[in-house]
Write a structure and sequence with these properties.
Number of helices: 0
Number of domains: 1
Shape: elongated
Number of strands: 11
CATH topology: Immunoglobulin-like
Structural class: mainly beta
Radius of gyration: 17 Å
Distance between the termini: 30 Å
Strand order of the largest sheet: 3-11-10-6-7
CATH architecture: Sandwich
Largest sheet: 5 strands, mixed
CATH superfamily: Immunoglobulins
CATH class: Mainly Beta
Length: 147
């Protein structure tokens, strides 16, 4: 299994093998005060192959402060079923999309935070976000949200 995509975004949804991303590429957030919510989602696309089917997998997304402390995380498991149940043409890998909300993770202070994705206990990817104090910009249709 390989992590093909990990992108911080305003919103994401997963349906079948489709990953819909709105406001992708978030790398900074403005909050009027701290502690304050991270307020983003992470869009993930996994490439899976035959050996990945028929067993349970674990995913963990941890938000770490500049000093390495975990300020919040989301953990879950998923099954991919049996390979006999899925028909994938040769040379094509199956894509498993995930949209994971991180919005309620509380950032204690401004600074740089790493959002780290672990697959089956191994670090797969890290993306960074700069949290700053400032007036919250309004996202379209969502008063008070900023990214």
């Amino acid at each position: 299994m390989k992590l093909a995509t990990a992108l911080l975004c305003d919103f994401a949804s997963a349906r079948g093998s489709v990953l819909t991303i709105v406001g992708g590429g978030v790398n900074q957030v403005l909050r009027p005060s701290y502690p304050g919510p991270l307020g983003v989602m992470i869009a993930i696309a996994l490439e899976v192959e035959d050996p990945d089917y028929g067993r349970r997998h674990m995913i963990k997304v941890a938000v770490r402060s500049e000093d390495g402390q975990v300020v919040g995380d989301v953990t879950g498991g998923f099954d991919l079923g049996r390979v006999e149940d899925i028909v994938i043409p040769p040379r094509l890998k199956a894509i498993v999309p995930m949209a994971i909300p991180l919005g309620l993770i509380i950032l204690p202070s401004p600074g740089v935070y790493d959002v780290v994705v672990y697959l089956n206990g191994r670090k797969a990817k890290a993306v960074s976000v700069l949290a700053q104090q400032g007036p919250a910009a309004e996202s379209p249709g969502v008063p008070g949200e900023s990214h």
